[in-house]
Each structure stands twice: as C-alpha cells, then as structure tokens.
Write a structure and sequence with these properties.
With 190 residues, the chain is α+β, with helices and mostly antiparallel strands. The protein has five helices and nine strands. Helix content is 27%, strand content 27%.
C-alpha cells in the first residue's frame, strides 16, 4: 500500500467522524452540499474515492481546510540546519540545501590578516556585506566595502578578499556557474 492509498483510505473515516462530531445527518449534509445521500454514505464507508470537487464542497460545508479532510502531512521544517565548515581561514555556513548551482553561504572572515594572494577559478560570485569592512582586490581594483554594499564578479578575474580592519567581516555569498549573475554593482572607492 502506497502513502497515497493510506491517505485516501483515511478520508472516509475522517468524513464520518467530522459529521458525527458536528451532530449532522447524511440528509442534512446532502441538503447543504448538493451531494446525494448515497454518495456521502459511500464516501464515508470507503466504497467511493473522493474527488477534489466533492472534498471542496464538504470542506466548505464543514468550514475546515481541505487538509483536515485528507489528513495532509504536516509541512516540513523550513529551517536550514547545516554544519559550518572552514574555507581557508574563513568560516562558511551553507544557506542552501539543494545540490547544484548557485550555492549560498554566510561567510565570517577572521580579524587577522589573510595573505593577499589573488586566485582565479571557474564561476561567478556575488558578495553582500552584513557587518564589518571588507577589502576586495579584483584585478587591478582595490575596493573597500561596508554593510549593505554588494559586488559581483567573474571568478576568472584574479581576486582576493579579507577584513579591512581588525574586526571580523560577515557577508553573504552566492556562487554560481559562469554566466549566472545577480546584477548588482559596487563602485570602487578611491
């Protein structure tokens, strides 16, 4: 028996229980819904499978959500629970569960100076500073960024970023395949 069969098999007893709890007869329910007494009886006994049209009429008559009639499973926990991991000297907290691209992270860049070693790799990156001051070296540009500022760049361009002060920096990072862009720009500061 599949999960769908189990859910459908439970509809009849739920309908009968709801009707009994409300002290309603099949005849009275038939008058309110326009569904024949015989159809209601067969639904409650499981001799007839419920259609969406029938269930919507019954949910309206009983003034309950459709989920209550079919015994829908509860919605899963929406929180993302992920393990942090180190990327170099930075702490990365994954914010996306789905495999593939793009990937979202919250990065915490440490206070100590990281070596200013420019790197390149395939992909596209988007940064958004949550707190602290970030120094972004991108090709020939040397950019200072503060909270609320964003930058995007092709990661084939030599790049490096780290804390611009003696305080840590927290930022959101989206990393995706080549060509995926967030279309936000941060201007270089002089």
């Amino acid at each position: 028996m599949t999960d769908v069969d189990r859910v459908l098999d439970g509809v009849g007893p739920r309908l009968k229980g709801l009707r009994k709890d409300r002290g309603t007869t099949l005849s009275a329910l038939s008058e309110r819904t326009g569904i024949s007494v015989s159809t209601l009886s067969r639904l409650e006994s499981g001799q007839r499978k419920a259609t969406l049209e029938l269930l919507l009429n019954l949910a309206t008559a009983y003034q309950v959500p459709l989920d209550d009639l079919v015994g829908a499973p509860p919605v899963g926990d929406p929180r993302i629970r992920s393990e942090s991991r180190k990327i170099g000297d930075m702490l990365a907290l994954p914010l996306s569960r789905q495999p593939g691209q793009p990937q979202a992270f919250k990065l915490i860049v440490p206070t100590r100076a990281l070596p200013e070693k420019l790197a390149t790799h395939e992909g596209y990156e988007w940064l958004y500073v949550l707190s602290g001051r970030l120094r972004l070296m991108l090709g020939e540009a040397d950019v200072l960024m503060g909270p609320g500022e964003a930058a995007e760049f092709d990661t084939r361009t030599p790049h490096w970023f780290g804390s611009a002060t003696e305080n840590p920096v927290e930022l959101l990072v989206l990393f995706g395949k080549q060509g995926e862009r967030a279309h936000l720009r941060a201007a270089a500061r002089k």
